[in-house]
Design goal:
alpha+beta; Helix Hairpins; Immunoglobulin-like; 2 domains; five-stranded mixed beta sheet
Length: 230
């Protein structure tokens, strides 16, 4: 989850988010270099007045400031396209979960298990126990096994929603009448929080997402107990 006064991304909990963090750092360094170079040119021109009033054109300068930005764009675009295709690629997921957005809660359905479906409501502030987070904790978390490719099918029952978990590098729109899909894999056990990221009405801020990643054996025990409960 996010921390007070946080400036950067949340700690990556999936390979996809790790790639996004690396690309962010790569692009930020390019921006720093360009900004520093432009600032140097401006200061040099102001302080030393390096101007040539008799130069009407310069083919060399024209070539440089045309080719150099093109090279910079290629250096930034190629890693971006690589990550885009990696995040869109879905190969043999071990588990498929359907996420339905409602006003104002989420419903989950595990398609690989019979009768395993539940609603996930935000835990009211007065019901929180010590250690739980206000506006982020839910009564039923979406439980998944670690180190396993997970496919999430996302849609909505009423209005536009968005299923987003920053630590996993996921943000996918939930559109009524349309089925979107995304995939991810958690690198370690933990609880990862998110929120609806599309304004969906009065209680938009009160439909959080909680994804709990556990070892495979614990997930099998949980799924068995949930099926018996249902």
């Amino acid at each position: 989850m996010a921390t007070p006064l946080q400036l950067g991304f949340q700690d990556a909990a999936s390979p996809g988010m790790e790639e996004l963090v690396h690309f962010h750092d790569h692009a930020l360094m390019v921006v720093y270099l360009i900004s520093s170079f432009v600032l140097y040119i401006i200061v040099t021109l102001v302080m030393t007045k390096l101007t040539n009033k008799h130069a009407h054109d310069s083919q060399e300068i024209e070539i440089i400031w045309t080719i150099l930005p093109a090279i910079i764009l290629i250096v930034v675009a190629l890693p971006s396209l690589r990550i885009l295709y990696l995040m869109d690629e879905i190969n043999n997921p071990h588990l498929t979960v359907k996420a339905f957005g409602h006003q104002w809660y989420w419903s989950y359905e595990y398609t690989d298990y019979d009768d395993l479906a539940f609603d996930s409501y935000m835990t009211p502030t007065q019901d929180l126990i010590p250690g739980q987070f206000r506006l982020l904790e839910v009564d039923h978390r979406m439980v998944i096994p670690t180190e396993s490719p997970i496919r999430v099918l996302i849609t909505a029952e009423d209005v536009l929603h968005s299923w987003a978990v920053p630590a996993l590098g996921i943000k996918m729109d939930a559109v009524p009448g349309r089925l979107n899909q995304t995939t991810f894999m958690t690198s370690r056990p933990g609880i990862y929080y998110g929120q609806c990221s599309e304004i969906c009405g009065a209680n938009h801020s009160f439909m959080p997402i909680a994804v709990e990643a556990v070892p495979l054996t614990h997930f099998e025990d949980w799924s068995t107990s949930m099926q018996q409960t249902v």
